[in-house]
Design goal:
The chain is about 25% helix and about 25% strand. It is of the alpha+beta class.
Length: about 475
Amino acid sequence: MNVQDPKTLKPGEARSEGKSVQEMMDEERRDVPEALRRNTYVYNGSDDLDPKRWTSQEFHDLEMEHMWSKVWQMACRLEEIPEAGDHIVYDIGDYSFIVVRTDDETVKAYYNSCLHRGTQLRPTGSEGNTEQFRCPYHGWTWSLEGKLIDLPCDWDFPHVDKEKATLPEVNVDFWGGFVFINMDEDCESLADFLGDMPAEFASWDYENKYKAHHIGKRVDMNWKVGVEAFIESYHVIATHPQILASTGDANTQYDVDPSINFNRMITPMAVQSPHLDKIEEQEIVDAMTGRTTRMGMDVSLLEVPEGETARAVMAEVRRNTVGPNFGKDYSSFTDSEMLDAIQYWVFPNFFPWGGVGTNIVYRFRPDGNNPDSAFMEVIILSDYDTSGPRPDPADMRVLGEDEPWSSAEDQMPGLASVFEQDMANMPRVQKGMKTGRKGITLGNYQESRVRHLHHKIDEYIATK
């Protein structure tokens, strides 16, 4: 498309030069899903944002009280708790919950606090299998169903009605093989909260994937700084210049509607960045695969035939290699579904990627009650050959303070080094916000998802 003068357009109408995502969809040789034809952007203002939203304890406390306590949030995967008694502790800020499978059909989530004197029934971040929840302090004990089954010296507690002393529960629901919880007794259903998003994921079969890798790390940043680093491609030109030859950064499509609880960006892959001068299709493939003649490596295995595009070649390679590895037939999926970063974000902190094969999922959480620290997680979901058993889910590997993301390159090939580049920015963003003397400025289109995040937070806080 041709670049137009932004000054002649309404706010939010300007777009980068280069072929648009929808023009790429026009070139697809397979039927394009209706979801990928959706191109919905709603301008939501251009005012600066107050840095205190990221740095102040007061704003953090408002989020905890009025947003985190009332929003649906992903707690774990169902595959992590497959048997009765399997449980995992989910922590968010100062809140802590035990998510437990009570039988083959039921999952419950309890506040992780003894009804006697408040002791945590399970340690922060723990998981395992148990037949009951016994307080380590005085021995009060509850069944998996939350019923009080043992009260030592009950003669001293005539005022405690054992039938009523059940563990308080929070709402639990499921989507895509994930377990979600919500503390608000009056919350809307998860289905209503997610809106049309599940329908858009229908052909990508999240329920029948398994957790192949799970990496976590504490980072010196507000949780929103982490979220914001992964919901725009504007930063690629400065932070990830090595991928410009095979990534359509500036012509990413952003689908943002302030009235709903999710948004999306589609970053086209196996195309060059609009920031670069014209390069050959073969150079795009070489850049994407890491095999270049300049490095003396053989590129003959992935030659782009005359009249073909790097995008078509790379998509077909994935269909013919990744599909058979999983016992799957990917022949009907578009080039976009095989290649592109089709990244959804569900308010406030859940990032499931669309497409087939392997899918990235991000989650960012406040680290305790500290606005200057967050816990970042990267989950890799993978298809598998369903003629055999589902592989066991990977345990989370927590990287140490001085352990770089690049140390997990074997678990996230090609991604870990990119994350390390992001890590160099995020603590500096947090520190810089504290010393700056102006508001935070956002682009109207490329950073529209950032503004959507803050718009939704304000909606929750406004209900206080």
